[in-house]
C-alpha cells in the first residue's frame, strides 16, 4: 500500500481552512491526526490530492470547563481527553472510555473530530456522546450549526457535514445529581464490535430518567429514551423490566450486513451489554 502524492496546506485560521476546503471541493480533505484518512488514501478509498491540516487551528484545540459542563474541541486527541483533569472532574466516564480506544499510538494523534467525522460505525465516542446527550457544533456552508450527537452521524462513513464544512467540537453537560454513566464495549479485533452506553438518574422514588445508546452493530448509533419504561423502578422490578426491554431491543435492532460476528451473536452481545450497562447505571446512581 503506497500513499499517493498530496499537497499539504497549513491554514492558521478557521476562516482560511474553510475557504481552502471550499475552493478545493472534492479534491481536498480536512486532515487532523490522519489515522483514518491516510489509510483510506492508501487503499484508494479517498482520492484527495490536497490535505488541509487542522492541527494549527487554535479554535479546535481546547478542553474548557464552562458553566454546567465541558467543551472539547474537534482537534483534541483521545489521549488529551483521557488525561484531562477537567474531563475527569466533570465526566470521568468520558476519560475512561477514551482510554480504551485503540492503542497509545492511535490515541496520541487521533482526534475526537476525526473519529466522529470519519463516522466508522465502530466508534466508542459516537455511542458515549449519544447517551450523555452531547451537542456537536460545526460550520455548515459557512454558518454555525448545532446537532444532537444522534443526528450528526447519518450512516456508515456519512455525517451531516458536506464538503467544506468543519466540525468544531462537542459540548457535554455535567450529568445531573443522582445519575451514573456507564460505557461498555466488546472488542474481538482492533475495533469494538458492540458499544453500549447508559445514563441512569435516580430520584427518591426509584429511576427518574434513563438513556441507552447502542452502537457499532448497526449503520448508526441507536439511542433510546427508556425514562417512561423504567421510571419509578428499582431492585428486582427494574432488573426484570430491563431484561425484557433488552430482549426486545436486541431482537429488533438493525444490524450491518457482512460482519464477522453472526447476527445471533451480535444480538446476544447487545442484550448482555445493554442489561449490564443499565444495571451498573442504577447501582452507581446515588442521590
Ligand atoms: C488500529 C486502530 C484502532 C482503532 N480502535 C478504535 C476503537 O477502539 N474505538 C474507536 O472509537 N475508534 C477506534 N479507532 C478509530 C480512531 O479513533 C480514529 O482513527 C481517530 O480518532 C481518527 O482521528 P484522526 O484525527 O486521525 O482523523 P483523520 O484521519 O485525520 O480524519 C478522519 C476523517 O475525518 C475528517 N475530519 C477530521 N477532522 C475534521 C473536522 N474537524 N471537521 C470535518 N472533518 C474532519 C477527515 O477529513 C477525514 O475524512 C481505531 C483506529 C485505528 C487505526
Q: Which fold name fills CATH's third level, the topology of the largest domain? A: Uridine Diphospho-n-acetylenolpyruvylglucosamine Reductase, domain 3
Number of strands: 14
Report the uncertain regions: none
Task: Enumerate the distinct ligands.
Answer: flavin-adenine dinucleotide
Count every helix, treating DSSP H or I runs of 4 or more residues as helices.
12
Shape: globular
Multimerization status: single chain
Secondary-structure-based class equals: alpha+beta
Report the sheet with the most strands, covering strand number, pairing sense and barrel closure.
5 strands, antiparallel
Element order, helices and strands?
EHEHEEEHHHHHHEEHEEEEEEEHHH
**Class of the largest domain in CATH?**
Alpha Beta
Task: Provide the CATH architecture of the largest domain.
Answer: 2-Layer Sandwich
Residue share in β-strands: 25-35%
Mean pLDDT: 96
- Helix content percent band: 25-40%
How would you write the strand order of the largest sheet? 4-5-10-6-7
Number of folding domains?
Answer: 3
Rg over CA atoms: 19 Å
Describe this structure in words.
The chain folds into three domains: 7-51, Uridine Diphospho-n-acetylenolpyruvylglucosamine Reductase, domain 2, CATH 3.30.43; 61-173, Uridine Diphospho-n-acetylenolpyruvylglucosamine Reductase, domain 3 (2-Layer Sandwich); 180-284, Enolase-like, domain 1, CATH 3.30.390.50. It has 287 residues and is α+β, with helices and mostly antiparallel strands. The radius of gyration is 19 Å and the shape is globular. Helix 11 packs antiparallel against helix 12 (263-284). It is built from twelve helices and 14 strands. The protein has a five-stranded antiparallel sheet. The structure holds flavin-adenine dinucleotide (FAD). Flavin-adenine dinucleotide (FAD) binds at residues 29-37, 54, 74, 101-102, 106, 109-111, 113-115, 117-118, 123-125, 161, 166-167, 190-192.
